[in-house]
Structure formats: C-alpha cells, structure tokens
C-alpha cells in the first residue's frame, strides 16, 4: 500500500494519537473492576453526544460534552464520588500518547511532510494533551472543530485542514482510529488510512479508507517518508 503526492498528514486526536482509556485506567484503585466499563461508556456517550448535538444544532464544546458523558458513565456504573469525577476530568487533559506517536511524527517531519491534528477537542484540551506528550515541535497545526462550531463528520470540519494547511484534499493523508471518521473523511476527499487499533468491523458507510493499519508505525512507509 502506497499513497502518492502526500504533502500533509492530518491526525484525529482521541483514540488515534492519545489513549482515551488512560484516564479511567489511572483510577483503577477507585473504580475497581468497573474501570473498563466506565471507560467504554464514557467514550461511547462522548461520541453520541457530539453527533446528537450536531443534528440538533445545539453545539456545546468538547470539554462540556466530555463532562456530561462522564456523568452518564459514572451514573451507569452506580458510582457517586465528586472528587473522583474531578480527577478523571483533569486526567483527560493529559491523556498519554500511544508509544509510536512521537517517532512516527519525527519520521514524517524529517521527510518534509506537514503534520497536524484535526479534532473535536477544544483548543485548551488539545494543547494540554500535545504538551504532555511533548510533540508540539513536530506539529504544523492543531485544529479544533470549534472553528466551525459543529462536530465531525460534518464536511466543514474536514475543510479546516485544507484551508489551514493550504493543500488540496488529495494531498492530505488523514488518519483516524474511529471507523466512522475514517469513512467520512474519505467521502470528503482525503486519502485515508484507518488506524484500526481496536480491530473494529468495517463500517457500512459511503466510501472506504484507502487502507488499514493497527498502529501508526507503518504510516511513514505508506506516505513515502522512508
């Protein structure tokens, strides 16, 4: 698998660069054997609320949505602990990056390929995660959907990367661990590599990603960076 004429690699943030389960995992002592359920439901409701708010045209930023999703997840697990809730939210600001993220970005930058994040996250959330991972010098842009006030997969969100990087959609390789995001970005016009970290089944949506990988280790070779 090889993509030609790639001038920029654009990454989704949560689940692609940053481990969305890291916050709940860090609080295993408090959550006990419920931590995995809390992490799973938290993420599911977080995404569902972005889609529902977009459909209703009732936008709230990702920090608020993340908090509301956590409230649901904790209530679903019958956990009532305001201090724990506060700790989990603070931990979400410093989610750990997956092990191969930094080296992948370094290889892409060395090859002269622009690197950027395009995420539902707020600028504050993304800056905190990027700083914690130590990858800020490797990025040419950190783009939030707050610029357009609607969540992915609305086409206007993908247009942000085109406008801000001054490249054509066909010159962008977009990477996401979320199948719905990968399929939607391909329908928009990007070259898309689905980083299918979790072994998800293929989506039943228009268009299909150009390829699948399990981690970002394989990306530099695909876009001609090595």
UniProtKB/TrEMBL annotation:
EC code(s) of this entry: 3.8.1.2
Tree of life domain: Bacteria
Any one GO MF annotation of this record: (S)-2-haloacid dehalogenase activity
Alphabetical list of InterPro entries matching this protein: 2-HAD (IPR006328), HAD-like_sf (IPR036412), HAD-SF_hydro_IA (IPR006439), HAD_sf (IPR023214), PGP-like_dom2 (IPR023198), S-2-haloacid_dehalogenase (IPR051540)
Catalytic activity: an (S)-2-haloacid + H2O = a (2R)-2-hydroxycarboxylate + a halide anion + H(+)
UniProt keywords, alphabetically: Hydrolase
EC category name: hydrolase
Function, as annotated: Catalyzes the hydrolytic dehalogenation of small (S)-2-haloalkanoic acids to yield the corresponding (R)-2-hydroxyalkanoic acids.
Protein name listed in UniProt: (S)-2-haloacid dehalogenase
Organism encoding this protein: Sneathiella litorea
């Amino acid at each position: 698998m090889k993509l030609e004429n790639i001038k920029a690699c654009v990454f989704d943030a949560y689940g692609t660069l940053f481990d969305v389960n890291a916050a709940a995992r860090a609080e295993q002592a408090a959550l006990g054997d419920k931590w995995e359920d809390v992490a799973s439901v938290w993420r599911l409701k977080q995404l569902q609320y972005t889609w529902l708010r977009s459909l209703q045209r009732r936008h709230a930023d990702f920090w608020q949505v993340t908090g509301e999703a956590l409230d649901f997840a904790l209530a679903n697990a019958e956990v009532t602990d305001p201090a724990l809730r506060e700790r989990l939210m603070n931990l979400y600001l410093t989610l750990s990056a997956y092990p191969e993220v930094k080296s992948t970005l370094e290889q892409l930058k060395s090859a002269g390929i622009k690197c950027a994040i395009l995420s539902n996250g707020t600028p504050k959330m993304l800056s905190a995660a990027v700083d914690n991972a130590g990858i800020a010098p490797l990025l040419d842009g950190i783009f939030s959907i707050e610029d357009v006030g609607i969540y992915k997969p609305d086409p206007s969100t993908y247009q942000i990367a085109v406008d801000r990087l001054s490249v054509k959609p066909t010159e962008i390789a977009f990477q996401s661990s979320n199948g719905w995001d990968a399929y939607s970005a391909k329908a928009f016009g990007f070259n898309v590599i689905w980083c299918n970290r979790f072994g998800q089944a293929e989506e039943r949506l228009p268009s299909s990603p150009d390829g699948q990988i399990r981690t970002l280790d394989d990306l530099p070779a695909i876009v001609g960076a090595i």
